[in-house]
UniProtKB/TrEMBL annotation:
One BP annotation, GO: cell migration
Protein localization: Membrane
PROSITE patterns attached to this UniProt entry: CADHERIN_2 (PS50268)
Chief location category: membrane
Keywords (A to Z) from UniProt: Calcium, Membrane, Repeat
Record-linked InterPro entries: Cadherin, Cadherin-like_dom, Cadherin-like_sf
Domain Cadherin residues, every copy: 24-76
Source organism, top-level taxon: Eukaryota
Protein name: Cadherin-22
One of the record's GO molecular function terms: calcium ion binding
UniProt keyword NADP, yes or no: no
Listed GO CC annotations: adherens junction; catenin complex
Length: 85
């Protein structure tokens, strides 16, 4: 199976137990995605493919998503993404 460029992959939907909702910004740790295969919407955390995916060349991708609060806290979240037939 392969994914077309721009296909929706995952939404992070990170939540934190706080008394007030946090203003979060999302980013991909580029050290975990050197070929820049994935893109992320900084406001929503929606992840899309920046390039086409092909299970024949790589059956699994691990990227690290950073959720940054409007303060100094950063919460990395690893999202494994297997490609299936």
């Amino acid at each position: 199976m392969w994914s077309l460029f721009g296909s929706m992959v995952e939404g992070t939907g990170s939540t934190f137990s706080q008394t007030r909702p946090a203003l979060l910004r999302y980013a991909i740790d580029r050290d975990s995605d050197l070929d820049q295969i994935f893109d992320i919407d900084a406001d929503t955390g929606a992840i899309v493919t920046g390039k086409g995916l092909d299970r024949e060349t790589a059956g699994w991708h691990n990227i690290t998503v950073l959720a940054m609060e409007a303060g100094p806290l950063i919460h990395p979240e690893v999202l494994p993404h297997p490609l299936e037939d």
